[in-house]
């Protein structure tokens, strides 16, 4: 998605917001969700108003840039839920607390960033791909369940083409938020090997992610594939991981 260099939130903020590269994780002032990467930020040094790039796009154009999941829906942008009651994102199955896209019939709701998730992600040096799916046969690496549902909303998952690796979008968002709160994603804290291991184990608690001497080449290949999978889905769901997140995954090179 090609971002505008500057937008103006006329309803919620008085200053024009400029597109910048984020050096730290942030909580979006629009959708209230964790973000990495490009963001719209107020140039006033005393103001901490920040928006996801996708939330800024919604403010400017009022429609998602590309909507691939619910073809028969006409999605419109809202800064707050226009309908009574709590709304659940149909992609991640988590509560919507701020900006959203809503189907004109009121049937479906999406977080702005969830509306822009890629349908497929290519695994480097491999013919395999990772696909965004609604129905899955594998168990999630985080929660060990096949389904992640809230009420009538099933939620989507990223799954490797061989079906061996699977992650609910909701579980990854929650795990990364937890890692951030625990201080694993901080520029001013060196990412030593133990922090890397703890961050990875939080993402995939039932998987062996600690390389050690004596492991077979097949075992190391499996660890590297798992870490590559996690890195790609983190990037897809939360934004470009930049240095502070990428260093967590450098354990695969050790």
TrEMBL record:
Cited InterPro entries: C1-like_sf, DC1
Pfam families per UniProt: C1_2
Domain of life: Eukaryota
Residues covered by the DC1 domain: 13-55
Swiss-Prot/TrEMBL keywords: Repeat
Designated name of the protein: DC1 domain-containing protein
Originating organism: Gossypium stocksii
Organism lineage: Eukaryota, Viridiplantae, Streptophyta, Embryophyta, Tracheophyta
